[in-house]
Design brief:
3-stranded antiparallel sheet; 8 strands; globular
């Protein structure tokens, strides 16, 4: 049996830069990309759409198992279709993010999505972005990264992102939401947000995106997982 495709896991709290950095590293290497958070957001959105209560664990697990989702990659962007409708923007709202955090705390939902996430592992390699990619989903990954940044910096980034999108948002409210989500993610009983034992923690508070991408590429090269550039 051939060795499994290599995986770079990038975990960490919301706003640490995981999504952008994961996409850029995957593009640089020509690897596949898994945005695990999108699967939880889509599960939450589908539940709301079909009026499934966010505390009905059994029904939510069924929603997760039957999730009708398609990811369409086109140059630098990815379009996400839920039940045939474009949900790319909707799943990135704070409301859906909060609902996803609640859904992700349910063991049956996490179990329902586990194999779907592992199926993304294909040659030449996979960059897996999430909160438990290294600690639960891909425990044998040869390189695990835990990205973090201060809560105030993550709120500032989110505030800037929303302003650029023409959305009016309160910086103080965003900070409170991020702190509440962090607490919920770290305290949940199943797959709490924390670095894998063998993960490298990288604080991005004072780093630029290119600096982080370069650092991760260097680490992959040092471990023989990517060619030297």
């Amino acid at each position: 049996m051939s060795d499994p495709a290599p995986v770079l896991t990038i975990d960490g709290p919301g706003g640490a830069g995981k999504g952008t950095i994961s996409r850029l590293v995957a593009e640089r290497l020509g690897w596949r990309l898994l945005d695990s958070g999108a699967l939880y957001r889509l599960t939450a959105l589908a539940a709301v759409k079909h009026e499934v209560p966010l505390d009905d664990e059994a029904s939510l697990a069924e929603v997760a198992r039957d999730l009708d989702v398609v990811f369409l990659a086109d140059n630098d962007a990815t379009t996400v279709l839920l039940e045939g409708q474009d949900a790319t923007t909707t799943i990135r709202t704070e409301q859906v993010g909060d609902a996803a955090s609640r859904v992700a705390a349910l063991p049956a939902v996490r179990e329902a999505l586990l194999q779907r996430q592992r199926d993304f592992r294909q040659a030449p390699g996979l960059v897996a972005d999430g909160r438990d990619m290294g600690s639960v989903v891909f425990t044998d990954a040869p390189l695990k990264i835990f990205l973090t940044a201060s809560a105030s910096e993550r709120a500032r980034r989110r505030h800037l992102q929303l302003r650029e999108a023409g959305v009016d948002a309160s910086l103080s409210s965003l900070l409170k939401e991020i702190q509440a989500r962090d607490a919920r993610d770290m305290q949940r009983s199943v797959a709490p947000l924390k670095p894998a034992i063998d993960a490298i923690t990288l604080d991005t508070t004072r780093l630029t995106i290119p600096e982080v991408v370069d650092r991760l590429t260097e680490l992959l090269t040092e471990r023989g997982l990517a060619p030297a550039t």
